[in-house]
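This week, study the protein below.
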Amino acid sequence: MTSQDSRYLSLLAERLALLTQLSRELLNARQQFIALDFDAFDRTLQVQEELCIQIRSTEASLFSLQKSISNAAVTRPSDAQDLLVRSLNVANQAMLRHSRPTAVSMRNLLNSFQPAYEMSLTASAGAFSERG
């Protein structure tokens, strides 16, 4: 196996690790959004954006290296698989661009109800103390 082949395998392993980490971050984002933890959700979106950039960089390195690999000992993924990974990464980046404004809108909507909840909590606390 040549050094190019080793580098190629290393890049494939790196891409797989990045995709695995991205899938974990997607699950975290879903849980944080359901819990309405928008600060954590914002941080997770930032991590996902960074992972997409790293995946894109790894993909570029893989693509340029694929052209020079001549050893049959390294089995290359099919062009269809590469295209699928690239298209999923592009779709995820687009989703991230649209998720941040949606999260900000949700946060603003929920914050607009905060005074009503505070008045309700204050009234409830007063009702409990009067009974005591």
In short: The chain has one domain: 3-131. Residues 3-131 form one domain. The helical segments are 3-34, 38-66, 79-112, 114-131. The radius of gyration is 23 Å.
